[in-house]
């Protein structure tokens, strides 16, 4: 082996008797990692945003008052509002690029920290995933509150507390940011600064478990698939298959709280518990599954793009002295 003394222990950590190697934080060239990471995150956001908008509208509507399902919502929005309708609130949502980078950094650093106490990959993935989501949601929630209000405009505007003033729609130069400023002013006037963190607790209760569940299941599914696949099968293909499986698992587990989160943020509710009780009382068990199909549909391409992008990003960002020692 033509590895330096520093690289050898690293190789041992990456192997951990696993078929699929995991690239850890200390193996990366950070400059490449962050440069490529911004592009990757933006691509993912643009790809899955329409499904996120559809999911939000499905979760907020009462029963099937507006749409009967995911595909019905897609075609109705496309017919009535056009492609632009599927990207309402997208520009303000791009600011989540900041939270995306914070998420990636926190996940990798916490994995490194936990490795000092445990070499169990499940433990490292669970703790790092939950911690990364806590940091990211603290940045994301105000952006989500504004973008979700914008998502509900058009066909869904009667379901939300805030509606755009008609004069914000005149003139293309001020269309996007004019609408954003209009919604932000209404939120601040009604609820003050706290209004931008409405649903923060519900978001944490949704996304911390989702992230904590996703990473361990992702590595679990990838490892199991590697045992079933031919030895010459590229690991990236197995990882691309494991991502959607993990996403579907995590989405199913956390969807009830995601429905509550959407309603708290869009309808201006203050109590997570009361919102949950009302959901059960009005719509029963099936109310907790609202938007689940849209969430799984959106999470499938998201997971594939994210996994392929993230794993490729890490491979491209690998420190030069480690490149030749890896087999993918």
Automatic annotation (TrEMBL):
Q: Which GO terms describe its biological process?
A: branched-chain amino acid catabolic process
Q: What is its main location?
A: membrane
Highest rank taxon of the organism: Eukaryota
InterPro entries the UniProt entry points to: MCP_dom_sf (IPR023395), MCP_transmembrane (IPR018108), SLC25A44 (IPR042164)
Location relative to the cell: Membrane
As for membrane topology, the entry says:
Multi-pass membrane protein
Q: Which parts of the chain are Solcar repeats?
A: 31-113, 120-224, 234-316
Q: Could you say which protein family the record assigns here?
A: Belongs to the mitochondrial carrier (TC 2.A.29) family.
The protein's name is Solute carrier family 25 member 44-like
Q: Which organism is it from?
A: Sphaeramia orbicularis
């Amino acid at each position: 082996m033509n590895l330096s003394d520093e690289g050898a222990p690293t190789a041992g950590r990456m192997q951990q008797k696993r078929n699929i190697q995991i690239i850890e934080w200390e193996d990366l060239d950070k400059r490449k990692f962050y440069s490529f990471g911004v592009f990757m995150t933006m691509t993912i956001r643009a790809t899955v945003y329409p499904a996120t908008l559809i999911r939000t509208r499905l979760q907020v509507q009462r029963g099937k008052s507006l749409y009967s399902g995911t595909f019905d919502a897609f075609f109705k929005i496309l017919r009535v509002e056009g492609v632009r309708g599927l990207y309402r609130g997208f520009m303000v949502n791009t600011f989540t690029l900041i939270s995306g980078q914070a998420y990636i950094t926190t996940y990798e650093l916490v994995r490194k920290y936990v490795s000092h106490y445990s070499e169990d990959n499940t433990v490292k993935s669970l703790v790092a995933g939950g911690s990364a989501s806590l940091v990211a949601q603290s940045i994301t929630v105000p952006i989500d509150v504004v973008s979700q209000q914008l998502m509900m405009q058009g066909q869904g505007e009667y379901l939300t507390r805030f509606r755009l003033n008609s004069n914000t729609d005149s003139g293309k130069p001020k269309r996007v940011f004019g609408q954003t400023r209009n919604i932000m002013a209404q939120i601040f006037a009604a609820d003050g600064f706290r209004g931008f963190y409405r649903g923060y607790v519900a978001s944490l209760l949704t996304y911390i478990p989702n992230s904590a569940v996703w990473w361990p299941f992702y590595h679990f599914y990838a490892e199991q698939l590697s045992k079933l696949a031919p030895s010459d099968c590229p690991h990236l293909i197995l990882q691309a298959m494991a991502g959607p499986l993990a996403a579907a698992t995590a989405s199913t587990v956390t969807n009830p709280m995601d429905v509550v989160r959407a309603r708290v943020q869009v309808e201006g509710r203050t109590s997570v518990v009361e919102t949950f009780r009302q959901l059960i009382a009005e719509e029963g068990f099936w109310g907790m599954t609202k938007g689940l199909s849209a969430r799984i549909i959106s999470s499938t391409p998201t997971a594939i793009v994210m996994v392929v992008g993230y794993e490729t990003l890490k491979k491209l960002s690998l420190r030069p002295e480690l490149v030749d020692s890896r087999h993918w």
